[in-house]
Write a structure and sequence with these properties.
By secondary structure, the chain is α+β, with helices and mostly antiparallel strands. The protein has five helices and 16 strands. The chain folds into three domains: about 50 residues, no CATH class; about 170 residues, Putative neuraminyllactose-binding hemagglutinin homolog like domain (Double Stranded RNA Binding Domain); about 80 residues, Thrombin, subunit H, CATH 2.40.10. The N terminus is likely disordered.
Amino acid sequence: MKFLENFFRIILVKWDWYQYRIWAIPSWSSKMPHLFRLNLFLALFVLSSCVMVPVELGNNSAKKKVNVPMRPESDRPRARTLVLPIQDSSEWFERSSLQEIYDNWLNYLEKQDQLILIKPEEIELNLQPPLNYLAIAQKAHDAGIQLVIAPTIQELKFSQQVAPIGVIRSQTIEMMVRVNMEVYQSKNGQKLLNKSRLITQTDRRRRLGNDPEKIELSERKKLVLEFFKLPVEEVLMDFYLDIVGLFDRFQWEGRIAKIQGDRIFLNVGRKTGLKVGDLLRVTDLGEEIYDPQSGQFIGRSSGRVKGTIEIIGFFGEDGGVAVLHSGAGFKENDRVELSW
């Protein structure tokens, strides 16, 4: 009680228009009953507490908004990517040559360490031309794949000119190949990239005789392989930067593979680029949307947000283990998303 009395004697704030001045408590306060002085001190303490503590009005049952931490651009998770075989609309390339170009390109992409490559044989796909890219994207999404890459050799033009006079005549062969790259987001079938590049080659040779022979189809195909195999590979490699540049245009996602007790097992993990402590947003699958007139698949709507989970460990080749962070009602096949 003596401590409270001494403490109460310290400060008395008096207003004199311009400033606060500190005054000692007048001597008459010593005659105040101890109980009254204690009650006055407690009243002042309660009032000051009411001023200092902010009060949030509203529905107490409202859920707090959980902000998933943003990742820096240099720390993106790797995207699971389906790379389709090279389609040849020109019909000039031999299938064996296209397969060799395709294999060399896959080897290049694997060395870049930005994509987790999925080959078509790893999932059941109908690759009979013409390809249905929306159906392939839907199938890829069901398999946990984010991107679908579709390279195509669209056309090849072949022309030759022969000098009109001379015993030994010059012959000029001009060839042009157009390579196109399309990239689809599997979640909704949206085409993220549609870009073409033109390759031109010229061959000059000399022929003996008044009427140099026209180049036969078999020889033309040999020329195509000779002049375009390496340039096509280089163009495909150049498209890599365009593909990586799409990372800020699509939502990376994984999914819940199994729930066991308080542990949530994911189909994405260390290989994908997740780290212990990452917070992932959990949503349901969303609905498939079809055109009411044609019945064609348009895409999948965004799912309802259920809450967040936190990565605590990894398992297998590329699996993650998480625990509940916020929300409820999670189930297998729910999607998990990480913003960056």
